[in-house]
Amino acid sequence: MVYMKLSLVTFVASAALASAACKGAVNTRQNWLDMKPTAQAQYIAGVKLLHTPNAQGVSKLDEIGWMHNFNFANAHQAPHTLAWHRVLLRQYETALQTVTNDSTLAIPYWDWSADSQNPGASKVLDTFGHDGDAKQNMCITDGAFANWAVKVDDNGNSAPAHCLSRDWSSASGGMNQLHSFIAPEVLAEAFKETEYDNFRQRVESVPHNHLHNAMAGDMGGGWSPTDSIFWLQEIKCLSNSSTLLGTYIQWYRRRTGSTPFVIVLLYNIWYAR
Ligand SMILES: *[C@@H]1O[C@H](CO)[C@@H](O)[C@H](O)[C@H]1NC(C)=O
Ligand SMILES: *[C@@H]1O[C@H](CO)[C@@H](O)[C@H](O)[C@H]1NC(C)=O
C-alpha cells in the first residue's frame, strides 16, 4: 500500500460537538531543533517506553501503527483526513504523557520545509535515523530507533517482526539521498487557501504524500506511525491549523446543513475513554 488516491467514507448527520471540549491545559508543540537536550531525551525515552511489548507481545506504538494501517484506505484522500489524523496524534500524545507521567509532554515537529532542499542532511535525522541499510533489508540501523522491529500483523495480533525500514536511496532514484521536499514558499501558498477541502488537498496530496513516498520503507504506507519520524512530520502538516476541525465542520455544514457524524463519534469515543 502506498499513499495514493483512495476511497471516501460516507458521513451521516449528528449534532453536538460541544461535549468534546478540551480537557486540561494546552501544551505547545515545539520544533524539535528548538528543544532543550533534556526535553529531547525525555521524548525519546517516552517513545522507547511506548515501544515496550505488553503481555500479548504488542507495544502501544505497534498498536497505534496497526490502527493507521487497518484504516489506511478510509483515513486518507478525503475531507476528514486531517481531522482523523488529529485524533490519532492526540492518542499517541496522550499515550506518551501516560508512560512518562508528564501531562505537559507535546509531540515535537520537524520543520521539513526548512530542510526541503537537502532533507537527508537534516539534523533531525541525527536522532531519528537516516536511510535503511541496503545490506540489511533497508532496516534502519542508526539513530535512537536503530534495529527496531514492528511486531504486529494486519489483524492487530502479535506477529513475527519485520524490521523498521526506510528506502530513500532506491525508492527515489538512487544517489543514496532523499530528493527535495516542498519548499516553505509552496507551503505558504497552500496556507492561503480559504476553502477547507482545497486546503486539505493541497497539504495532503503534495507535501504530505511526497514526504511519505520519498522516505519510503515503512514510511511509505500504512505502517508509517511505527517509524517515529511520522509523528514529527504529521504535526508539521497539521500545525498552524488549530481551528482546522472547526473549519472543516463549517465547510461540511455549508454543503450539507448537518454536522459530520464520524468526527463527532471519534472525538466522543476518545474523550469518553
Ligand atoms: C510513572 O509513575 C508510575 C507510578 O508511580 C511509576 O511506576 C513509573 O515508573 C513512572 N514512570 C516514569 C517514566 O517516571
Ligand atoms: C506556525 O506559525 C507561526 C507564526 O506564523 C510560526 O512561527 C511557526 O513556525 C509555524 N509553525 C509551523 C509548524 O510551521
From TrEMBL:
Instruction: Give TM segment ranges.
Output: none
PROSITE patterns with a match to the protein in the record:
PROKAR_LIPOPROTEIN (PS51257)
| Database matches in Pfam families | Tyrosinase
Thylakoid is among the record's keywords: no
Q: Which residues form the Tyrosinase copper-binding domain?
A: 60-232
Q: Does the keyword Metal-binding apply?
A: yes
The UniProt keywords, alphabetically, are: Copper, Metal-binding, Signal
Q: Which GO terms describe its molecular function?
A: metal ion binding; oxidoreductase activity
Q: Which residues form the signal peptide?
A: 1-20
Protein name per UniProt: Tyrosinase copper-binding domain-containing protein
- Which species is this UniProt entry from? Geranomyces variabilis
